[in-house]
Write a structure and sequence with these properties.
three-stranded antiparallel β-sheet; single chain; alpha+beta
């Protein structure tokens, strides 16, 4: 192995040797070996990684483009957006990308394109099979096991989780936090060992006389045969000839075993930015509202990962006609949906405030549009009428004023002109405010005003 290492000119990293299995994995202080494989043996790590990957990979994703400042869907939508790998489901593809990011700190996607440059297939690579280099002009190149040549950034997409300054490769959470993860694994192994050997602590049998090696072995095997294992954990032990049993370990309650396991789960939750209550720890809700808890989770955990995926895959849209400014988006709206009463209250406010239409609301609730122009027309505040009739309230007030002026004897034509109202025919009858209608001759209404 050493001859092969010194014979090559490329730099050999710990990742290369560790991934190839040429050297033994180093144990943590807790006495366990932590790597990408053994990390999944920790229940909390498996739960956190699967929770994040399953949540993001099942989100709706689509292609969009901005025209005149407005976001619209980009059509025709490239097939890879909904099915990146022709041999895998969308959920499996995006899920494997996220798992690679969370454990290794890096995700690599091999891009296969047609002669015209359009995407034919996307394949997630094993991060341990990829080495990152820079060529003579400083461009990033990828050396992939099984590939005959170096791949450019157009042929291989690199998505890093957390990157140290000056490095190109992301930091592996498993490697950086192996002591924390190793403690969690040790606690789980200890719990398994404890129950497999019985619900009593380890100890020694003290014998007053001298025993031969064969007698000591028989005494040990006889005691273990009767008391080892959880099925025999509470059987009564009998020792004769002055022998006594002395425990040599601390009881679990005295060693705060349960508190230690709880703290290990909280450490994993912090490492992956997952709220502890989502990993099953009771009494750890940060907010009284489920909506607020989901908002905190989306903001601090899911959104950064989603934006890294969008930023890495959106440049592929430029390979399509008119897609130079197109991009892809994962819709996080479904994770932030409140209960039905809160949603309906928000919709009512949006309608009354005049920035959403009835059909906009129905689309958010996955309901079909109402085939009527009024359902697609924004309404204005207060009057809650169509925008085209927004001056209806002002018009009504002017008509009321004209009515009052005419009722007290002002000339109708002059009143309409002064108030800016359209001309209209008048009956010629005097105002009923001045003369009751029953006393007016309809054939000669002006006779009531003639001076005798």
């Amino acid at each position: 192995m050493l001859g092969g290492l010194f014979g090559e000119e490329r730099a050999v990293s710990f990742q290369t040797i560790w991934g190839s299995g040429d050297i033994a994995d180093v144990e943590t202080t807790a006495g366990t070996v932590i790597n990408n494989e053994t990390a999944f043996q920790v229940n909390a790590i498996f739960s956190a990684v699967s929770l994040i990957s399953d949540t993001i990979s099942t989100l709706p994703v689509d292609s969009y483009i901005r025209r005149d400042g407005q976001r619209t869907t980009f059509r025709p939508r490239p097939a890879w957006v909904q099915k990146p790998d022709v041999d895998m489901t969308k959920e499996a593809f995006y899920g494997s990308v996220i798992v690679s990011m969370l454990l290794d700190g890096n995700a690599f996607i091999r891009v296969y394109a047609t002669r015209t440059g359009e995407i034919a297939n996307l394949v997630v690579l094993n991060p341990q099979d990829v080495q990152i280099k820079r060529n003579g002009v400083g461009r990033v190149m990828f050396e992939v096991e099984g590939e005959k040549k170096l791949l450019s950034s157009e042929e291989c997409i690199h998505i890093a989780d957390v990157v140290r300054p000056g490095n190109m490769r992301g930091v592996s959470r498993v490697n950086a936090l192996k002591e924390n993860f190793g403690l969690a694994l040790s606690l789980e192994k200890f719990a398994s060992k404890f129950f497999s050997q019985g619900a009593s602590t380890q100890g020694i049998i003290e014998y007053p006389g001298k025993l031969t090696a064969e007698q000591a072995k028989q005494l040990q095997e006889g005691f273990d045969a009767r008391h080892r294992g959880w099925r025999r954990s509470h059987k009564t032990g009998i020792l004769s000839a002055g022998a006594t049993y002395k425990p040599t370990s601390v009881q679990n309650d005295q060693a705060q075993f349960l508190d230690s396991r709880r703290m290990a789960i909280e450490d994993v939750a912090r490492a992956f930015n997952v709220p502890p209550h989502l990993l099953g720890l009771p009494g750890t809700n940060s907010y009284a509202s489920v909506e607020q808890n989901n908002l905190a989770w989306v903001t601090h955990c899911l959104r950064p990962i989603v934006q890294k995926l969008e930023g890495a895959l959106s440049p592929l849209m430029a390979r399509y006609t008119g897609g130079e400014t197109a991009f892809i988006r994962f819709r996080l709206d479904g994770l932030l949906r409140a209960d039905i009463q809160s949603r309906y209250t928000a919709y009512s406010t949006a309608l009354l405030s005049g920035f959403m239409t009835i059909n906009d609301v129905r689309r958010l609730e996955d309901l079909p549009d109402i085939q009527d122009d009024s359902a697609s027309t924004v309404r204005v505040p207060l009057a809650n009428v169509n925008v085209s009739a927004a001056n209806l309230k002002e018009q009504t007030e002017r008509v009321d004023m004209a009515q009052r002026l005419i009722q007290v004897g002002f000339d109708p034509a002059e009143v309409l002109d002064r108030l800016g109202l359209p001309e209209m025919a008048h009956t010629g009858l005097p105002s009923v405010q001045l003369q009751p209608i029953s006393q007016i001759d309809p054939e000669d209404p002006s006779s009531e005003y003639e001076v005798e």
